[in-house]
Known about the structure:
Blueprint: H1 3-14, H2 20-31, H3 40-49, H4 54-90, H5 94-107, H6 109-117, H7 122-140, H8 148-205
Helix pairs in contact: 1-3, 1-8, 2-3, 2-4, 3-4, 3-8, 4-7, 4-8, 5-6, 5-7, 6-7, 6-8
Amino acid sequence: MKIFTSLFNIFEKLSYHRFATPIMCANSFFESIFWPVPADVMLVPMCVYQRRKSLYYAFLTVLFSVLGAVVGYYLGYYLYDPYISDFIRIMHYQKSAAKAAEYLTTYGILFVFVGAFTPIPYKVIAITAGLCAAQRYADEGSAGALGILSFVLVSFVGRGLRFFLEAIIILIGGDKMEHLIRKYIDRIGWFCVFLIVIFVAYKILI
């Protein structure tokens, strides 16, 4: 049953819809705050079926992803207790948030870059970075390298490298890349489902 092929065909049609770009931007924005669907899920099909606009779509994805991360940062900075901490608990992100806080304390702004570039849930890093910045400001009178300006600049670099790399690969790959994606989309999709199941099981059992 080719579920993911069907979904990909839906995204193909969506990429030509007049609201496709706003939906992609909204997904990128909210994914950096609370939304579980990665920005890549819409960016990749949009680039595949509108290759001439690949770099434009990558730019919008980066922009709105970082804007969402800024919102997440300030939520962590001002509203972590009790509102955001409850959200993290409901989403079972407590251990991820604790690890993010540990790494942010140890590696500082470098870990923000790692989170921006890799599949690590960036929403957790954005919120935790705001929390760590607030704590550092309370203790030292300055957020230091975790200040909002540094956070935004590093986020643009990390998110930019990730999303522009995807767009450029698709742009250069052309029809061959589209063919490969179509051919292996179901295998990739079911593999991702498998990883999600393992992750959820880990969260429940550990």
